[in-house]
């Protein structure tokens, strides 16, 4: 019995072409849509172009659209799913799917750094490799993964690290969880499972702010309004803030606006280590939630999903810390 794999094309560089001036533009039709690709005799591909957008155009509402379609696919008897996506926001969509899809079916997100007609285009190879991973029994229960450049990365931690290099996707601190070699899918480690929330809507006005030397209260003053649902802060070092920001951070907390803190560092995790004014210890005592292991854009997605599920207070804190 063949394994049905749902292919969801969403756009991005993998679906674009270079014009005569060297500029990369979307095509009127995704060149992968009608592609005849023989991966394995026991794999049946069902292709849908859910939309065709560059990844900076992707919103949480679009991410939810993908998530709902994949959730429906499980009931339709699909073994797994592959999502082709632009790389700029690929990591955010991948995490959103990982947080909102509770099934054990393999779900793979992939893309390309070079357009379909460029020399050395990586899209077709990444696409074929992603299908191999999505159709592998070894991928069952691994959560949503990102497959690029022969590596399998967990959606929770993978990030784009280079603007143009084909080896741009990396998992800081922890490394990839598997590789694809000579047609074989090999997992070398697993990550702890996380809570899945099959939300059916997404809240808005969840913001991301980056801390910097000499930062004052102005940005937080501007965000302190009734329409703000939550703020993620990329803090300094292990999780510290300039002291001038503290009074405004307290006002945000007093207005029941959840604040989630991560580190702006590429490697490592945010922890309340330093006990001085603005240090992580005092920030944690104020009620700021430390999110361990995620970068800013991913922590924002997790906060958004938690808020969309109706989580507040200690329930939200426990979810963010999971």
UniProtKB/TrEMBL annotation:
Give one Pfam hit by family name: Asparaginase_C
Q: Which SMART domains match?
A: Asparaginase
Q: Can you cite a GO biological process for this protein?
A: asparagine metabolic process
Instruction: Return the broad EC class.
Output: hydrolase
What InterPro entries has UniProt attached to this entry?
A: AsnASE_II, Asp/glu_Ase-like_sf, Asparaginase/glutaminase-like, Asparaginase/glutaminase_AS1, Asparaginase/glutaminase_AS2, Asparaginase_C, L-asparaginase_C, L-asparaginase_N
Q: What are the UniProt keywords, alphabetically?
A: Hydrolase
- Write out the catalysed reaction: L-asparagine + H2O = L-aspartate + NH4(+)
Coiled-coil intervals: none
Q: Does the keyword Hydrolase apply?
A: yes
* Its EC number(s): 3.5.1.1
For this UniProt entry, the molecular function terms from Gene Ontology, in alphabetical order, are: asparaginase activity
Protein family membership: Belongs to the asparaginase 1 family.
The protein's name = asparaginase
């Amino acid at each position: 019995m063949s394994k049905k794999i749902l292919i969801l094309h969403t756009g991005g560089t993998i679906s674009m072409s270079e014009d005569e001036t060297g500029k990369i533009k979307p095509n009127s039709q995704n060149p992968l849509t009608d592609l005849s690709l023989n991966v394995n005799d026991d794999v049946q591909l069902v292709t849908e172009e859910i939309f065709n957008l560059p990844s900076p155009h992707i919103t949480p509402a679009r991410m939810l659209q993908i998530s709902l379609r994949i959730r429906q696919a499980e009931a339709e008897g699909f073994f797994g799913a592959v999502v082709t996506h632009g790389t700029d926001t690929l990591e955010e969509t991948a995490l959103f799917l990982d947080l909102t899809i509770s099934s054990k079916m393999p779900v793979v997100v992939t893309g390309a750094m070079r357009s379909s007609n460029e020399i050395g285009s990586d899209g077709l190879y990444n696409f074929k490799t992603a299908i191999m991973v999505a159709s592998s029994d070894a991928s069952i229960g691994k959560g949503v993964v990102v497959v690029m450049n022969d590596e399998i990365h967990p959606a929770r931690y993978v990030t784009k690290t280079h603007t143009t290099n084909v080896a741009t996707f990396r998992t800081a601190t922890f490394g990839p969880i598997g590789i694809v070699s000579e047609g074989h899918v090999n997992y070398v480690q697993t990550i702890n499972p996380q809570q899945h929330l099959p939300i059916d809507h997404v809240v808005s006005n969840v913001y991301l702010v980056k801390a910097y030397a000499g930062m004052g209260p102005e940005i937080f003053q501007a965000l302190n309004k009734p329409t703000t649902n939550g703020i993620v802060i990329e803090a300094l070092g292990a999780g510290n803030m300039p002291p001038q920001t503290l009074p405004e951070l307290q006002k945000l907390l007093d207005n029941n606006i959840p604040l989630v803190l991560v580190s702006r560092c590429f490697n490592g995790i945010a922890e309340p280590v330093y006990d001085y004014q603005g240090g992580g210890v005092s920030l944690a005592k104020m009620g700021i939630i430390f999110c361990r292991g995620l970068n800013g854009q991913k922590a924002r997605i997790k906060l958004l999903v938690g808020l969309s599920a109706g989580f507040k207070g200690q329930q939200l804190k426990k979810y963010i810390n999971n």
